[in-house]
Amino acid sequence: MTDLPKSRRTPRRGALLLAVSVAVLPMQSAAGCAAADATPAKVDPAKVAALDSVTDSPDAALPASDGGGNVAEPTQPAKPSSTGKAGPASGAGTAGKPGTTATAKPKPKAKAKAKAAAVDLTDPKKKEIAMELVSSAENSSLDWKAQYKYIEDIDDGRGYTAGIIGFCSGTGDMLELVELYAQRKPGNVLAPYLPALRKVNGTDSHKGLDPNFTKDWRKAAADTAFQQAQNDERDRVYFNPAVKQAKSDGLRALGQFIYYDAMVMHGPGEDSVSFGGIRKTAMKKAKTPAQGGDEVTYLNAFLDARKAAMKTEEAHSDTSRVDTAQRVFLKAGNLDLNPPLKWKVYGDSYSINN
């Protein structure tokens, strides 16, 4: 039985073709994965130490794109859309118009919050886009609802990986999911596996799960109660915290998605290769919109920091989910993440037209 490193997850299917040589991956654990923290992450120490020196240079080499994310000839990065012209500073009259009342200039933080409130990723249509974008990277498919029944051991040192967000038997989030399902529907087909899931947590072992766990998982996946439990755990651990933090930072829908995708892969911890650490690295390079900074500049800094974190481990060395997806939308100035969207992950092309 192999002890599990302190880590979150790895891309599945298409992504694994690019990382077949890696058996154990090193990212910081998410909230549900935090139970598996007995052993340190096996990252490259030199690469982790270099994270503070990340710059925006990778962005300069990327192709520009049109409003839908189509790659075009290189251009300057698009500027964020304006929220309107502010009037003159308080106390000054409007030139040429005596008696006109001056308009106070909004504070940067207030403007940032207003922009963030304009388009929220929790909007059902926006959230569906987010789920499909993540699924393209995690499952090589836009049909994320087909993944409730997904389960396999992808030989990444985390035991079984399953469901819509890659719940793992070795990292704690699968255990919490099955516990929730048992609370809502006692005596369900997966409830008998709870003792075994508690024992294998933190390892890659299948002891007590084989030979019927995968079959019973797929059976449970047909139950709407189990599907809802997967949705709720995804939102509790990953989606809601990511969107809340992004809105607090003054980010619109694209930035909210960028945070969510990072949290899915890296987990919400605070070390240098987790979501919290990536955000801290970015904030050393650029101010968030809530701090009065430029939204595009900050998101480029965040994506630079995320790429650097990904490259500390071989299994995440392919950064196409950033380079030819999120960065393409950002260079197009599509901060509201509006369709049509076109992107590539691991060389495969995807599109959302409406």
UniProtKB/TrEMBL annotation:
Residues 1-30 form the signal peptide. This is Chitosanase. PROSITE patterns: CHITOSANASE_46_80 (PS60000), PROKAR_LIPOPROTEIN (PS51257). Residues 54-118 are annotated as: Disordered. The lineage of its organism: Bacteria, Bacillati, Actinomycetota, Actinomycetes, Streptosporangiales. It comes from the Bacteria. Residues 80-105 have a biased composition (Low complexity). GO terms for molecular function: chitosanase activity. Keywords: Signal. The keyword Disulfide bond does not apply. It holds the Pfam family Glyco_hydro_46. GO terms for cellular component: extracellular region. GO terms for biological process: carbohydrate metabolic process. The keyword Signal applies. It comes from Planotetraspora mira.
